[in-house]
Amino acid sequence: MARANDEVAALFQEYADLISITGGDAFRARVYEKAARAIGGHHADVSTLDLKGLQEIPGVGKSTAEKIVEYLGTGSVAAVEKLRAKIPAGVRRLTAIPSLGPKKALVLYQELGISSVDELADAIHEQKLRDLKGFGPRTEEKLLHGIDLLRSAGDRVLVDVAADLAESVVDALSEASGVLRCAYAGSLRRGRETIGDIDVLVAARTPGPVMKAFTELPYVTEVIAHGDKKTSVRTDRGLNVDLRVVPKDSWGAALLYFTGSKAHNIRIRERAVHQKLKLSEYGLFDTETGERIVSCTEEDVYARLGLPWIAPPLREDRGEIEAGLEGTLPELVTEADLRGDLHTHTDLTDGLASLEDMVAAAAGRGYAYYAITDHAPDLSMQRMTKERMLAQRAQVRELRPPRGMRLLHGVELNIGPEGGVDWPDDFLADFDVCVASIHSHFDQSRDALTRRLVRACENPCVNVIGHPTTRLIGRRSGIDADLDEVFAACARTGTALEINAHPDRLDLNDEHILRAKRHGVRFAVDSHAHAVPHLAHMRYGVATAQRGWLTKDDVINTWTLTRLRRFLRKGRA
DNA sequence: GCCGTTTTCGGCCCGACTGTTTTCAGTCG
To answer: Do A30 and A124 fall into the same domain?
Structure first.
């Protein structure tokens, strides 16, 4: 069951789309889009708020708040139903086709009665679009191509795939003639968990050579748009890359603009307008004289708008502008702050590398401490026994890792259907650290799942809840537990929540982290490595923690070993 | 429909590219 906030957000997004399609006031549509985002990201559950509380959500006024109350009371909103009755759901679906927006969708529906993607494909093949105003032969071609893309849509890709591609594009273009600077921006720079396309920014004396080099990259399959300032391509990696080329002295304004998010950009541009300034990707200008004031660095632009530099992971219009004005932006945790990793495996269970190899690689990352946490016997395929675990402990105690790195002997316990774990307290008490995770029985009731996690927190030996929602991005949605209750239990019992850094998990996600932090929870950013290369996934976990506004102090594996050990003692005898 | 470090009314972010147009609307980010 989704949070009421998510249901309301989806409803308002649909309402905004329907307003656009029916040719309603574009500003009204934008208001509902904005409200949808604000409600989806709001920490408090809207079903617990009254009319007054709802209006305290920025972007939610009287009319919107009343619609929320109406929805929560009756399960629908009359104004939305009215538009739904005018426009079939399939017409809205048409706007998912690239190059087809609300205006064309309405024309297709009104003139030809087209209300589904299939009907549109048929109509194009029957040449029915020829007589419509604004539809030419190129439009037909683009629509057919767009339909193909939609039908084979891989949607967004995992962040590691996008990062590899982006870094390779940046490396290649940095070598192109006339390129002065090159970097990726967009959602990848903001550290989002999945990426829809890659934005690459170049500062160059002349755009020609770099544009050419770009379209000739080996993984480019198609050039979508090709101009002096912007070129867009599709790649064989399932995502598009946009390249923008700007003059060198526009670098800061352009980087700011292309990093987004769109919502953040709109907010800072509004701020500019209020100061009689105009902000574009070319710089910050005086509206009256047209004179450029600043543009070279992001810091310059923010400063002229009365703001400190805002780190990209915060740029989601989730309060960062207000915090910047008040001087209360968090000092975000960084990868360099991490002193260790608290959830890793070896080939004793389902890891691929030996204890020695994992430890050597961890030492190479400069960690001060490193925990080995192989599986316990309740994941029966791992064939773990007390004897095998104790033998590993002896091996760990004997190892002398380089650079004085300290080894912690831990375990990843399985949280059973009733919330119990593999071993009794007296055996667990001798581990340095216990991670406990759910690995099965994902479909229990909400109450059962909540109780299960709360019981695990109440175990005096459990230090960290591993991959708390068990989601696998794009493959398995997270379990349906009352997370706020779990967060409260973590804070009460001194149990940390994991931010699992593996790109297909990133669990907890940024929004959960923001909510958990309000409960006073501590976090562990862990690689969950099953092989040496996985240790480097930490960067994605850190980015997720940054998106959750976490500081060094919130993350237990940035602490000194002494402070960490005190935390890990928890309720043990 | 929302909102105010000029405003409780009159604004609401800005520019690139494409295709169908003869000067611009639509789409996208």
So the answer is: yes
Q: Which bases in strand B are touched by protein, i.e. have an atom under 7 Å from a CB?
A: 1-3, 5-7, 11-21, 25-29
Domain count within chain A: 4
Gyration radius from chain A CA atoms: 26
Nucleotide with smallest C1' distance to residue A107 CA? B26
- pLDDT digits over A167-186, tens only? 999 999 999 999 999 999 99
Query: Are A167 and A131 members of one domain?
Result: no
Calculate mean pLDDT across residues A162-167.
Answer: 94
pLDDT of residue A299: 95
pLDDT of residue A380: 66
Nearest to A372 by CA among A416, A405, A419: A405
In single-letter form, the type of residue at position A501 comes to A
Q: Let me know whether A198 and A298 are in one domain.
A: no
Asked if A36 and A13 touch (Cβ cutoff 8 Å), the reply is yes
Contact A414, A378 (CB under 8 A): yes
Does residue A448 sit in the same domain as residue A481?
Answer: yes
* d(CA A261, C1' B12) / Å: 19
* Containing structural domain, residue A503: 335-569
State pLDDT tens for residues A436-451: 999 999 989 999 999 9
CATH number assigned to the domain comprising residue A51: 1.10.150.110
CA–C1' gap, A12 and B12, in angstroms: 19
Report the distance from CA of residue A266 to the C1' of nucleotide B14 in Å, as an integer: 9
DSSP per-residue codes, A40-54? HT-SS-GGG--HHHH
| CATH number of the CATH domain containing A553 | 3.20.20.140
Contacts of A96 (CB under 8 A, 6+ apart): A150
Together in a domain, A187 and A210 = yes
pLDDT, tens digit (0-9, with 9 covering 90-100), for A527-552: 999 989 899 999 999 999 999 999 99
